[in-house]
Amino acid sequence: METEDEENRPVWARNCSLGCILPQRVVITLMGFFALIVAYTNRVSIPLVISKLVVPINRTHQSSGACPPEEVSDEGSGYNTPDTYKWSAQLQGIVLGSFYIGYLITHLPGGILADKFGAKWILGISILISGLCTAFTSVAIYYGDVWGLIAIRILMGVAQGPLFPSLTTLLSYWVPAEERCSLGTFCYSGVTVGIFISNICSGQMLHHFHWTVTLITFGFITGLWFIFFILLITSTPDEHPCISPMEIAFLAKQIPKKSAIISQVGHNCAFYAMVYCLPKYMAEVLRLSIRSTGIVSSYPFIAMWGSSLVSGFLADWLIRTGRMSKNLERKFFTLIGALLPGSFMVAASYAECNKTLAVLFVTLALFTMGPYYAGQKLTPMDMSPSYSGTIMAITNGIGAVAGLISPPIIGVMTSNATIYEWRWVFWLGLVILVLSAVVFCIWGTTEVQSYDPSSSAKHA
């Protein structure tokens, strides 16, 4: 029997809902997943492009503490781009960190705008501008050299600032609590998949084509995503013309109305360093070819993607079966996600010029970082369900500062791009990771805090 609301819907809308194979909340999750993929291909493609543009360091294997270059039989068949830019390691670090100058500016305003005007257009326009910045990066470099590149990276940061706040606002209206772990984890895993795709595709395109093709391709794909996103997505279930009455009733029951949700999944300092500096390490220290750098630097992130998904399901099982309390699980997974990755990165530096062993250790480092997302990252929702968005926004702001300062600091520490300089970087990363995990294990909590309204209701 049709409800009155269903009878009032246009015939085409009713037919559309009958023809949809997937529930609309799954479609929303998929589009959010692809949103993060295209956003991160835009964000992290520049390290490999830079390695193709700059004049390599003039050194010998015996005197510099660097590895001999990789011998590739068909390297001569690739596209030969003249190295024309003499940018120092410190200047390259500034380029990589400049994204976060703009990112910090629009992070919190982006969440507010998403709540006021709807997450759909804030998220869509955010990623569209990011794609345009990527496509026109070559123009910025041609006319402005390194300062043109820095300027357009800052603009891209401004564009991507609202990305996570608006995406989380969108999910908060579409994903019910009982599906939040599976759908939410899958959606946010677009980050690591985007890095994987960016690295492996960039390496191949930079080998076969002029470097501008890489950036134009990623920008074009972003534009295609924007078209599908605008056609398929609405900010709330009530606005969607093709949603079934059964699904909208289910979501109305599971997801209460809300006034504002602003949140962002933060990234720690070590993760930022790996995202932006791992390709530099493989290209400048291990001296892999540009194509091999793209391929092998993608392995760790696909390993992390699988590990984070498995860790989420494992954490739910441990808590549900009573094998671990929520508090113990969060702290245990956080400690694993800090101690093991840092240790494996240090081990990679001691592998020196054994390229296979070094890549194995780096892959294990990011694989073992996966449990972190089932640990400390979830505690804002544990501590304050009502204000978890605000807590996550603050956390991400701190993480963005780390993204701003990490590449320049690493650039200063690795001015000669030797194994020994990078070894100090990895040791520093291990210390930072372990100290932060220990602090969380001592003072962290999953208890609902007194300032949360649900805490007051519980004790009323």
Helix-strand topology string: HHHHHHHHHHHHHHHHHHHHHH
Instruction: Tell me how many strands there are.
Output: 0
- Beta-strand level of the residues, as a percent range? under 5%
C-alpha Rg (nearest Å): 23 Å
Shape: globular
Helix/strand/pairing category? mainly alpha
| Uncertain ranges | 256-268, 385-389
**Count of helical segments?**
22
Average pLDDT confidence is 75
The termini sit apart by: 42 Å
> In which range does the helix fraction lie?
over 70%
- Sheet with most strands: none
Topology:
Elements (H helix, E strand, L loop, with lengths): L3 H5 L2 H9 L4 H21 L1 H8 L7 H4 L24 H29 L1 H17 L1 H24 L2 H12 L5 H9 L1 H19 L2 H22 L12 H10 L14 H17 L4 H7 L2 H22 L5 H25 L4 H13 L11 H5 L4 H26 L5 H25 L9 H7 L1
Helix pairs in contact: 3-7, 3-9, 3-10, 3-11, 3-12, 4-14, 6-7, 6-8, 6-9, 6-20, 7-8, 7-9, 7-12, 10-16, 11-15, 11-16, 14-20, 14-21, 16-18, 17-18, 17-21
